[in-house]
Amino acid sequence: MNIAKVVDAKGLSCPMPLVKSKKAIDQLASGEVIEVKTTDKGAKKDLAAWAQASGHQLMDMKEENGVFTFWIKKA
Amino acid sequence: MADNKKKTTIVLFSGDYDKAMAAYIIANGAAAYDHEVTIFHTFWGLNALRKDEAIPVQKSFLEKMFAKMMPRGADKMGLSRMNFAGVGPRLIKSVMKKHHTMPLPQLIEMAQEQGVKLVACQMTVDLLGLTQEELIEGVEFAGVAAYLADASEGNVNLFI
To answer: Where does the UPF0033 domain start and stop, copy by copy (chain A) (predicted)?
Structure first.
């Protein structure tokens, strides 16, 4: 997977992971992918809901040692 | 594209730090959702928009009293519960720091950065004896009709 931008939102709480992801994805072209890292447990549902509502595609997600990583493809 | 954007409007009536935080977190979230977001500040909610320094303006005795008794800016607002004469906000701010939660003044800044429209209700601005110069830059002044124009197209309308 080609990652155009990495968003490090580790340690930040709501609404920062969402706001940072949005800022990052705005700078991408359609079809490009961002990787978002967060430790906010709420972000799991938040980023999935946001991606769906904005038409982006949540490609994959993993959890490792309390860090959630998301890959989202811009619509 | 701009026309089919969804809209969120929030009426911030309350002058409590916690309630204003909720309003601004929702506003920032909605902006990230690509909504057109407007926060209408009225009554005590206007205090969130006050500059934190004293601005020399001509005021009547009563207006001066109001200016003194109301919190000067978002950071000085009290909590709706467990305020404990000002100790509560200090406690919660230290807890927020630990959790890396953004404090209210920064949430307001970020909202402006994200293009959230901040509106002050002109009638209550006058009522509380506030002036345009005492409020932060970038605030618009309007009344109920402007609110209704936005809210009637709103997908999310909240009163906090």
So the answer is: 7-31
| B113 contact A CB<8A | no
Interface predicted TM-score of the whole assembly (ipTM), two decimals: 0.83
* CATH of region B7-159: 3.40.1260.10
Tell me the CATH number at A42.
3.30.110.40
Is a pLDDT exceeding 60 seen at residue B130? yes
Confidence (pLDDT) at B26:
98
Total domain count for chain A? Answer: 1
Q: Tally A–B CB contacts below 8 A.
A: 35
> Which among B108, B118, B160 has a CA at the least distance from the CA of B141?
B118
**Chain A residues in contact with B101 (beta carbon < 8 A):** 13-14
Q: Which residues of B touch A15 (CB under 8 A)?
A: 25, 28-29, 32, 102
CB contact under 8 A, A54 and B29: no
pLDDT of the residue at B3: 60
Domain range holding A17?
A: 3-73
